[in-house]
Structure formats: C-alpha cells, structure tokens
Amino acid sequence: MASVQRWVRPSVDLDRIDAGLALLVVVAVNAFGAAPAILGGPSSEWFASLEKPALFPPTWAFGVVWTLLFSLMGIAVYLVARNGLDRGAVRLSLGLFVLQFAFNAAWTPVFFALERPLAALGVIAVLDILVAITIVAFARIERVAATLLVPYLLWALFATVLNYQFWALNA
C-alpha cells in the first residue's frame, strides 16, 4: 500500500526545490547587478587617466568580489521571500532591498558613464544607509539573511572611501 501511495502522491524533495529557487534568485541578482557595467566601467579612457587611491585594489578583484556579494544577496533575498510574500514585513524588506539595489545599479553609470565622482559619492552614501536599513529589516524576518548582507555593507563602505578618494585626488 505504501508503494501505491508513493506512486499516486510522490514525495517532494523540498530541499531540492529550495536550492533550485535560491539558485534562480542568485542568478537573477547577479544578472541585474552586472547589467550597469554595460553602460561604463573601469576600461574607459577617462578612468584610466584618473589618479588612483593607494587603497585601490587590482581591477580583477571587483568582478570576483561583486559576484560573491551578489550571490550572498540572492541567497538573502530568497531566505526572506520564503517567509511568505503575503506578509507585510517581508514585502517591506524586499522593497527596501529593491530600493537599495536601484542605488547600487545607479552608481556605476553615474561614476563611469557620466564621469561624476562627486555625484556618485552622493549615490553611494545613500546606498550605504539603505543597505544598513535593509539589514535591519531582514534581521526582523531572517537573521541569517541579514548576516549575509553584512559583507556587502562593508564593501559598500570601502567603496565609499574609494569614491571619496577618487574625487579628492582628481577634483
């Protein structure tokens, strides 16, 4: 009888479904996160001509770090979303994530395509605040998700220092 029940109602491997959905969110966050680089990046003549701060890491490090951070963000978003999109706190948290992600996406074209380090500094300062608020909102739903965003906040703060130094050295 048990084998008939399995055939009629197959067991669902929720861990596999969770992993698949989490992977889908990770890929989407990476894709949206990388998209602004199409508008401009560190390979431009303008950027090459800038005096670089002493803290400026090798250019290849940015792609590695951002891929890792976008992946952590994707996992964090999934962990929050699986708590129920019908919950107001979840929708608010995800809305905050989208808002800060919009500022993240805006920074690249402002800095590289518009060649406006001071304006980019304003964008990234708002981003820093929004990421911190998003971490607090995520923590109210899923502490692990909030923890996964901490490296992102630290990198954004480091990027803020770099942005300031680029502006100060090249103004």
Descriptors for this entry?
7 helices, mainly alpha, about 170 residues, elongated, about 80% helix, about 0% strand, Ferritin
Structure report:
This protein is mostly helical. It has a single domain, classed as TspO/MBR protein (Ferritin, Up-down Bundle). Helices cover 78% and strands 0% of the residues. The protein has 7 helices and no strands. The longest helix is centred in the C-terminal third of the chain and has 28 residues, at 143-170. The N and C termini lie far apart (78 Å). The model is unreliable at 4-12 (pLDDT under 50).
Structure in a nutshell:
The chain is mainly alpha-helical and 171 residues long. The chain has helices at residues 2-8, 14-34, 45-49, 59-81, 88-113, 117-139, 143-170.
Question: How many strand elements?
Answer: 0
Supply the CATH superfamily name.
TspO/MBR protein
The parts where pLDDT drops under 50 for at least 5 residues are 4-12
State the secondary-structure class.
Answer: mainly alpha
CATH names the topology as: Ferritin
Quote the distance from N terminus to C terminus. Answer: 78 Å
Strand content: under 5%
The total domain count is 1
Q: What characteristic shape results from the CA principal axes?
A: elongated
* Biggest sheet overview: none
The gyration radius over C-alpha positions equals: 20 Å
CATH architectural designation: Up-down Bundle
Number of helices: 7
Name the average pLDDT. Answer: 92
CATH class: Mainly Alpha
